[in-house]
Amino acid sequence: MLGKNRTIPLLAGFLIVPLIVIAGLGWVNYRLIKSFPDEVGGRFAVQWQVVRQFARQGISPYSDSVRISTTASNSTSLKAGFTAPLYTAFIILPFALIEDFLVAKSIWLVILEISVILSTIFICRFAGWKPGKFQFMVFLFFTLFSLHSVQALILGDTTILVVFFTILALNTLRDKRMELTGFLLALATIQPRV
To answer: Three-state SS for 145?
Structure first.
């Protein structure tokens, strides 16, 4: 009976601590995006606007009428459009339904950040590498703050999800879970140019 009493707070801790960390990430992302609205999430901004028009007005995301004018960091105006396969719109759709763009972008960044962390964990698992806690934290730090991760996070790029789905597919392939592997590889095609 004493074991059951200890299990409930332990389980609650495993649920509450990650929720607090995720909420903290969301808050930090929101403050960052609010401070630098044009620098963070440029690619996501285009996808969000195009998928939003697709969902609300039924306009094809590939139509010239939905090409979005964006301003790059060097103040040159660019015309950007939706270049991903149509099924990518279904991944962006839940965020496009959120009215406040800053909230949608901050939630999107939280998902990308969690994907980078989980990708790091699953790549270690796939490689059979079992580092110590300190060694893993150093590896995670350099993974999170490498040029490629930071650049993809700043842009709000789906490349992070492609990497995540591919690493998960490799793990499921090794475990001989072929149907799940196929599903994950199909999800990894949301950005074919990678």
So the answer is: coil
CA atoms within 13 A on the CB side of 58: 0
pLDDT digits (tens, 9 = 90+) for 160-180: 999 999 999 999 999 999 999
Note the pLDDT tens digit of each residue in 32-55.
878 877 766 678 888 888 898 888
pTM metric for this prediction: 0.82
Q: Which residues pair with 128 in a beta bridge?
A: none
**Beta partners for 71?**
77
Task: Say how far apart CA 158 and CA 179 lie, in whole Å.
Answer: 23
Write down the residue that tokens 């801790």 correspond to: 13
Whole-angstrom Cα distance, residue 104 to residue 30?
Answer: 9
Question: Rg of the chain's alpha carbons, rounded to an integer?
Answer: 19
CB atoms within 10 A of CB 167: 22
Write down the H helix ranges in the chain. 2-35, 42-57, 88-96, 101-127, 133-144, 147-155, 159-174, 178-187
DSSP character at residue 1: -
What span, in angstroms and rounded, lies between the C-alpha atoms of 73 and 161?
A: 24
Length of the chain, in residues: 194
Q: What is the pLDDT of residues 50-104, one digit of tens each?
A: 898 888 888 888 877 766 654 444 333 345 677 888 888 899 999 999 998 889 9
